[in-house]
Amino acid sequence: MGTELLAPLDLAFWHLESDAHPMHLGALAVFSPAPDTACAGTGAVLELLQTRAAAIPRLRMRVRDVLLPVGGAAWFVDKDFDVRRHIERVRLTGQEALGGDAGFMAGATRLAGELMERPLERGRPPWRMYVIGGADGGPFAVLVKLHHALADGMRAVAIGAGIFDEIAPLAGRAAGVPPSVRARAVPPRSWMPGPRQVAGLALGRIEDLGRAFGVGASVVRASRLDLRGAPALTARSSGTRRLATADLDLAAVRRIRRAAGGTVNDVLLAVVAGALRRWMRERGETPPVDDPRALVPVSRRRPGQPAATGNRLSAYLLALPVGEPDPRLRLHRVRTAMDRNKAAGPLRGAGAVAVLADQLPSLAHRFGAPIAGSAARMLFDLLVTSVPLPRSALSLGGCPLRAVYPMAPLARGQALAVALSTYGGRVHVGLVADGKALPDLDRLAHCADEEVAELLALLPVP
């Protein structure tokens, strides 16, 4: 198995990390119990996860510096890899363990927030899993942490393909992971280009540099020196993390889309804007004069492109209309702005900062990441991202997956990140916040559900 040079954007995520701002993605997957299955008890789940994770080559890789390019790094096989160091069991106790589904979810989200605070150990493959269990025979959850250098949303799904039963059926049980899964796990590529690639790379580089120059100019024009905004969203970082979750009715969201036009994502962005407005007013805050800006990531991965080709991301910049009191007009403004973004494309505009990062040399990422991270607040106030999931029903060891709440990292200067995923007829919302800046994060989660209900009531929904 060879080595793989970190792509420029992966290297940027690797160097953006600090103790107060760990750069890992997360997901809290909640499973229903199923007696007489391979996941009967959290101990069995732990062993099953260890067996399957150990068979995924990508999860055996760690990051090491390289001599060339100067400032670069590459993925190498960790010769001391032990999957037991990466997956552990955590049990809820007290009322959280005995309080039924509601108590379990409260405990699991509290614990997940605390575990998301901890940076991943950089000397080992940068990922961890935690099996969270409550009362015997009750629901359980699996918290997954993947460094952003290791995975974007699409690569995280590809890694999950080797974990879930949908891709890894338990035929034979004793073998752990069938050969079909091992064949699908994409091994690292060699990062040394062949002679035929050199000319194409040179031509592509010229085109990319021209595009990066335009993006850089857009970023400068869009940057704000006057950093006024909602107090909670601009609070100084405490290094703590809090998680809250919401479950929105996907059928209701689709009815709103049919009545108002646009896309499901437009509706969800408008829901986030409305939820923020409700939450601010409940706190006694006046919505800021300048609407908060959301960075909305967009995948640049082409259909059929291997998942092991590094982060392939761009983003749109969107002003969330929290100052607009009419939910219908909020949705209209979001639709108009997103239509404008899509017409320009994901490779243009100030939101395409990831495209700019892709063109910088390795040395610039190594020494410039702290400066770039501190400047993020000048460009956007929060992250709002959608994470794709398979449409088919998923399970682990025969236990059905009933919800999965994605979690995004917090950039320097931000106190809130919103991630959404659609599964099982619901939109699962994961809210990650600075624990001291947003102690009432649960209320913001409730506001999202209330906003969907109000849009349904106001629009001529078929």
Explain this structure.
The protein is an alpha+beta fold and 462 residues long. It folds into two domains: 4-184, Chloramphenicol acetyltransferase-like domain (Chloramphenicol Acetyltransferase, 2-Layer Sandwich); 196-458, 2-Layer Sandwich (Chloramphenicol Acetyltransferase), CATH 3.30.559.30. The chain is 37% helix and 21% strand. It contains 13 helices and 15 strands. The chain has helices spanning 8-16, 42-54, 94-98, 100-116, 153-160, 179-184, 195-222, 250-260, 264-282, 327-344, 353-357, 362-375, 441-458, and strands spanning 4-5, 24-31, 61-65, 73-77, 87-91, 127-133, 140-147, 241-249, 293-299, 313-319, 382-386, 395-396, 399-407, 416-423, 426-434. It has a six-stranded mixed sheet, with helices on both faces. A six-stranded mixed sheet has the order 8-15-14-11-9-10. Helix 8 crosses helix 9 (264-282) and helix 9 crosses helix 10 (327-344). The radius of gyration is 22 Å and the shape is globular. The N and C termini lie far apart (56 Å). Mean pLDDT is 81; it is low at 168-193 and 195-209.
